[in-house]
Amino acid sequence: MKITRLFDFLAYQLKNSPRPDSIVMKRHGEWIPISTQEYVNKANAISRGFLNLGVKHGDKIAIASTTNRTEWNLLDIGLQQIGCISIPVYPTISESDYAYIFNDAEVKFAFVSDAALYEKITSIKNQVPSLVSVYTFDNVDGAPNINEILDLGSDADNQHEVDAVKQQVKSEDLVTIIYTSGTTGRPKGVMLSHNNILSNVLGSNPRVPKFPSEKPKALSFLPLCHIFERMLIYLYTYNGIGIYYAENMETIGDNLKEVQPDVMTVVPRLVEKVYAKIYDKGAAAGGIKTKIFMWALKLVEDYQPFESKGLGWTIKHKIADAIVFKKWREGVGGNLTCMVSGSAALSPRLNRMFWGAGIPILEGYGLTETSPVCSVNSMSKDGFGIGMVGKPIDGVEIKIADDGEIWVKGPNVMMGYYNNPEMTADVITPDGYFKTGDIGELINGNLKITDRKKEIFKTSGGKYIAPQNMENDYKQSRYIEQIMVIGEGEKMPCALIQPNFENVATWANTEGISVPSAKEEMVKNEKVIDLIQKELDTHNKSYGHWEQVKQFRLTPTEWSIDGGELTPTLKLKRKIVLNKYKDLYKEIYGHFPGE
């Protein structure tokens, strides 16, 4: 069958590879599967329910959920089939951003996961004239529930109406507006059509590896409101891969062992946290066990996939694998063919180690505006490179502009920014290239990202500093949780650092060093400052003298999504971090920009 709309992927699965566990979530300690047929039936019921409610083609419906859950999928497909436009929204944004997005998009109905989000959105309902009602997934006292829509559509007698409306939905129709959280300013509404996203699915499909399992499974935890995970959900559906939703970030370790997935998507910060736990466990084992663990790590520090290192090394690697790395794989379920990493750059050292441990990580690159994938590594020698993000996917063209900016052209490039033709014209050239704002280079056809164009800055001496790569390098330290390199227009680059308080405390205990437990006191402790300085010194060696971080200050609070320092995809909100720690900036430079 020909796939021209996103909901066709579900019909394709029903016809070609139906599953008893098409989408699965955990409720009250039990995994509850929804089969492909039930998925289709419930999506149809939602479509019928909306038609009975008077919802029309082109109406905007918002969805916000604190965790990934199957109701999201049912609602997504149900809306698509009758030509509605979904407005997925991050649960962590402020009430003022909700009001802005809902008014900008003229949202008619909103669906939220739980009582806290219901309260949050109903608090701004009187500020949004278009908003008729807010529904919930959980049972919340006094709140309309998604089951009411399912009940409205329980009678299949008007399914012919749904089928007729489906026929009117075109590939080029707007299907979703995704408001980018952004690191500065108001959210921008990225308009994506059915064809934008489905072309991305079909273009990425040749990079999907072959799975040993007859019925492969994916574990999903990255937010569905982000286009990366959402596109992959359609890709999994197309390939007949069962989708299991992790309960939350804290339970991922347990969920991996329960589900034993063949594939999962990650962000670099999760990989870093997984490695930190593995390292801590190995380092704490003591005696000969710790020595063997450290030997195994050293062995794969410079691991290069698809290259032979000789018989002697191979024998050592087999020993390390049997004693150490087999346990790593068991810890992530035992069946992972690969993990796919996006959102930010992954440490090359960590990537080598995980490949060496038999847990390949494929880095990709993309943006919301490109639906999202532009390029991704493959499980082949010519399509893979450590520190690179692969070759462009099918149908996508990448070129490097004169100033090093990455430009992308293809059917995946957005329709434009909603209600903002001027901003659209700023980022899309007359011949259709999207200007990504990222700096990179093509090496034998493989893309390498070097930094964000807008984040590169000059010191007062005229030297360019590319902070993102430096930050990713410094974060390889177990004692540095977050770091932001600063110094635009200043004589030298410095840094604001949030320590990994837990690892610092463990280090102090192991070394028999007395360190205050209160974070406000810990960041002022000379021994802790010396520890971080040594970590910086180690990584500073790989940079030119003008690039090296000369001074730093430790922050007593943890940087988080809720705190406003990080976007939902864990990128730094630089202006917010800068303003929040203005006093620390002044301690370093003696003044604050603009003051």
TrEMBL record:
<dbReference type="GO" id="GO:0004467">
    <property type="term" value="F:long-chain fatty acid-CoA ligase activity"/>
</dbReference>
<dbReference type="GO" id="GO:0016020">
    <property type="term" value="C:membrane"/>
</dbReference>
<dbReference type="InterPro" id="IPR020459">
    <property type="entry name" value="AMP-binding"/>
</dbReference>
<dbReference type="Pfam" id="PF23562">
    <property type="entry name" value="AMP-binding_C_3"/>
</dbReference>
<dbReference type="Pfam" id="PF00501">
    <property type="entry name" value="AMP-binding"/>
</dbReference>
<keyword id="KW-0436">Ligase</keyword>
<protein>
    <submittedName>
        <fullName>Long-chain fatty acid--CoA ligase</fullName>
    </submittedName>
</protein>
<keyword id="KW-0547">Nucleotide-binding</keyword>
<dbReference type="GO" id="GO:0005524">
    <property type="term" value="F:ATP binding"/>
</dbReference>
<keyword id="KW-0067">ATP-binding</keyword>
<dbReference type="InterPro" id="IPR042099">
    <property type="entry name" value="ANL_N_sf"/>
</dbReference>
<dbReference type="InterPro" id="IPR000873">
    <property type="entry name" value="AMP-dep_synth/lig_dom"/>
</dbReference>
<dbReference type="InterPro" id="IPR020845">
    <property type="entry name" value="AMP-binding_CS"/>
</dbReference>
<feature type="domain" description="AMP-dependent synthetase/ligase">
    <location>
        <begin position="19"/>
        <end position="418"/>
    </location>
</feature>
